[in-house]
What does this fold into?
Amino acid sequence: QVQLVESGGGLVQVGDSLRLSCAASGLRFSSYAVGWFRQARGKEREFVAALSWTGGTTSYTDSVKGRFTISRDNAKSTVFLQMNSLKPEDTAIYYCAVGGTIATIGDHWGQGTRVTVSS
It folds into this structure.
């Protein structure tokens, strides 16, 4: 049974940093592309960042480029999202997901971790 468990969310101030983690189990993690998505209240879920299974290809939505960094530790079956210079518009529930390729991420999803950026 595949499980993805996010952690690291919380309440922070504008300009602060947070690092989200997503621990995977029940799958050969190193063979999967990984990604982060977010859903703000009243809005649809949106793509944030993705990383290929090799770690050689990344993709970010424009609004987080230069501020967020996705990374992975295959030995720990964990994907991270380092978020710097946080803005109120980053407030959302953040979800991790995996898939065979960056384009097909969504095979499995976590339950989400809430990030609130207060001004």
Q: What stands out?
A: The first strand starts at residue 3 and ends at 7. The chain is about 0% helix and 50% strand. Residues 75 and 116 are 30 Å apart (CA to CA).
